[in-house]
Write a structure and sequence with these properties.
Blueprint: H1 10-40, H2 46-58, H3 63-79, H4 82-102, H5 107-119, H6 125-138, H7 143-156, H8 160-173, H9 178-191, E1 193-195, E2 213-218, H10 220-236, H11 241-252, E3 256-263, E4 280-287, E5 301-307, E6 312-321, E7 328-332, E8 335-337, E9 342-343, E10 351-357, E11 370-376, E12 381-387, E13 393-397, H12 402-406, H13 415-431, H14 436-449, H15 455-468, H16 473-495, E14 499-501, E15 521-523, E16 544-546, E17 566-568, E18 591-593, H17 605-612, E19 618-620
Parallel strand pairs: 14-15, 15-16, 16-17, 17-18, 18-19
Antiparallel strand pairs: 1-2, 3-4, 5-6, 5-13, 6-10, 7-8, 7-11, 9-10, 11-12
Helix pairs in contact: 1-2, 2-3, 2-4, 4-5, 6-7, 8-9, 9-11, 10-11, 10-13, 13-14, 14-15, 15-16
């Protein structure tokens, strides 16, 4: 038996690990208590630095200790000469670097390093840039380091061009470096801004300050170079998403929205000096068109509709607003009116469509002509509408043309450029017929070029997308539904009709309902709809609704539709009488078809419905 290695049992090993952890924990708790005791006593000495160093070396995410350490450093700074202060903070930077090796994504470490450099008499920003380079070489997506790099670049005066070259190096070594692509998207508009349409072509003012330049757009010449760079990336690895996202941003160059989120006091420590408490202000730069393209639409009154029946005025905006706080004023025949604005549904606090009722007798007489003006004082704009003699209704609106409403999502000036990009993507698709990124980009390019002309191809590509990427099939179905609705709106605009037919289109969702304010007859039969959402109440002129053969179980959007007379909901999933309660608000409803719904099995359904909907004279169950 001698000379043989003794093999420990698993239980024995676990017990030894447990005891070792308990020993370390006891030492840590003892040191922590000693530090907190010193802080409570107001002791700011070298021993405090040593104790906090021991604790933070093993756990650099202890925010209270970083706060205490800053208090000590500030105190020692008052007792030392300038050269000694420089050495003190240089030593602190070396310590922080050691802590970053323990946790490169420690909020406390990066925040403390930023603070130390602001206290250094002579900060070495070149060294700090080198640190960022090393950290990003280990983890290219370390957003703490990217944020710190932006601080260093700003403080050291590194040019935008140098930083763009830095992204060149990172992307050249790894096309999948998403953070570098994103950083590049923030630099290009500064270095190569697109001149405004009315600016001189040869002028070259500062791209960051001149009002003659679009701060979020890139000039066409540079765009062509960026297209080539992204082509190299996704032709090399078609399945990598980083280059595709950047390419989508290039095509759209939508508005860059900055959102400031303030996270106050992440630590539980409330006794810390307020200037030293860890308060992080996170600026999230959303490059619209990276995930979903968003068109730039000017805030304006897009439509005014007035009806003698009910003496009601409907106002549509280009974006959802809160009219009750936006300074909306109605003037009838030169006289301001005291009216109460309301959205089309109680759940829509911000809505693109708002309603008001005029005083009784204001416009009911058909023999009178009236002029109505809606003033939006908040945006210094207005919209006029004339109600002529003998007319029961009138409206004034912008036409929902494809160029203005739906095709502005991809905003490259030259359609020839888009056509060339579509050709490149089609070439890649021949090599990679099941590449989802390529398919989706082709769909968006087709939408930008000619949505109606490419409708058949777009539908085929959506079907392929659902097959190759089944996890996102619901998203693709919703996006396809959106595009089909847009196309149908365009066709309705060109035909100048008020009948809207979307039957048998496999729709899974409804959108752009604010564009259907004037529709009198809508057919949504034979789709895959589950509900009529609150936004459906924007169809204020609707008289007939056909929604047979869906899976609708919620009718929330059939709310206070003043002209609705007939509703057909055959073969849906309406189960309870309460699901029909919203119909009681539609005072003109006289015909209702509920055949093929589970609700018909409810006891005494006919008598219950007659009480709920007394005006309905033609009921089918």
């Amino acid at each position: 038996m001698h000379g043989r290695v003794k093999i420990k049992s698993t239980a024995q090993q676990e017990e030894e690990k447990r005891k070792e952890k308990e020993k370390k924990l006891k030492a840590f708790v003892s040191a922590r208590d000693a530090v907190l005791k010193k802080r409570s006593a107001g002791e700011h000495d070298e021993e405090a630095l040593q104790l906090t160093r021991q604790l933070l070396s093993s756990n650099p995410d202890f925010a209270t200790l970083w706060n205490y350490r800053r208090e000590v450093l500030l105190h020692l700074e008052t007792l030392r000469e300038k050269d000694e202060v420089q050495k003190l903070y240089e030593s602190e930077l070396h310590f922080i670097e050691a802590c970053l090796k323990v946790n490169p994504k420690s909020y406390g470490c990066w925040h403390h390093r930023t603070w130390v450099n602001t206290r250094l008499p002579q900060p070495d920003w070149t060294r700090e840039l080198g640190l960022c380079d090393r950290c990003l070489s280990l983890d290219e997506r370390n957003f703490h380091c990217w944020d710190y790099r932006r601080v260093v670049v700003k403080a050291s005066g590194v040019s935008v061009e140098q930083e763009l070259q830095f992204t060149d190096r990172l992307i050249g070594s790894n096309f999948s470096n998403y953070s570098s692509w994103h950083y590049r998207s923030t630099l290009l508009p500064q270095l190569h801004p697109q001149p405004a349409p009315d600016s001189a072509p040869n002028t070259s003012p500062s791209p960051t300050t001149s009002p003659q330049f679009h701060s979020h757009r890139v000039c066409e010449e540079q765009l062509l170079k960026e297209y080539e760079l992204s082509h190299n990336a996704f032709f090399t690895d078609p399945n990598d998403q980083s280059a595709w996202f950047y390419y989508r941003w290039l095509l759209g160059r939508g508005v860059c929205v900055c959102v400031c989120l303030e996270l106050l006091c992440i630590c539980e420590d409330t006794s810390a000096h307020p200037m030293l408490c860890v308060c992080v202000c996170v600026y999230v730069c959303v490059c619209v068109c990276v995930c979903v393209c968003v068109a730039e639409r000017e805030e304006m009154i897009s439509c005014v509709y007035v009806s003698r029946e009910g003496e009601r005025v409907s106002v549509a905006f280009s974006k959802p607003v809160h009219a009750q706080s936006e300074g909306l004023m109605l003037v009838l025949d030169g006289q301001p009116q005291q009216v109460e604005w309301r959205s089309t549904h109680p759940r829509l606090r911000h809505s693109p469509v708002w309603l008001c009722d005029l005083p009784p007798g204001s416009i009911s007489d058909m023999s009178n002509e009236h002029n109505l003006t809606i003033h939006w004082t908040e945006k210094h704009t207005h919209r006029d509408c004339a109600l002529y003699t003998g007319c029961a209704e009138s409206w004034c609106r912008d036409s929902a043309t494809n160029l203005e409403l739906f095709r502005s999502e991809l905003s490259v000036e030259k359609s020839s450029v888009l056509q060339a990009e579509l050709q490149s993507c089609n070439q890649l698709l021949e090599l990679e017929p099941q590449n989802k990124w390529c398919l989706l980009t082709i769909i968006l390019l087709m939408r930008a070029l000619d949505p109606l002309g490419h409708e058949k191809e777009t539908l085929a590509h959506f079907q392929t997308l659902k097959e190759v990427d089944p996890m996102r099939s619901t998203y693709y179905s919703d996006l396809c539904s959106k595009f089909l609705i847009e196309n149908t709106i365009l066709k309705m605009e060109y035909a100048e009709v008020r009948v809207f037919s979307l039957s048998n289109k496999n729709l899974t969702t409804l959108c752009h309902l604010d564009q259907l304010l004037f529709v009198t007859h809508i057919n949504l039969s034979s789709n895959q709809l589950l509900r009529l959402p609150p936004h459906f109440a924007m169809l204020q002129c609707l008289e007939v609704l056909e929604a047979d053969d869906n899976a609708i179980e919620n009718l929330e959007g059939l709310y206070h539709l003043p002209k609705l007379e007939e509703v057909s909901l055959r073969n849906n999933q309406i189960c309870k009488l309460s699901d029909l309660e919203s119909l009681a608000s539609c005072t003109k409803l006289t015909r209702l078809d509920l055949r093929g719904n589970p609700v018909h099995r409810t006891a005494h359904i006919e008598s219950e419905l007659s009480q709920l909907l007394p005006r309905v004279t033609a009921l089918s169950l």
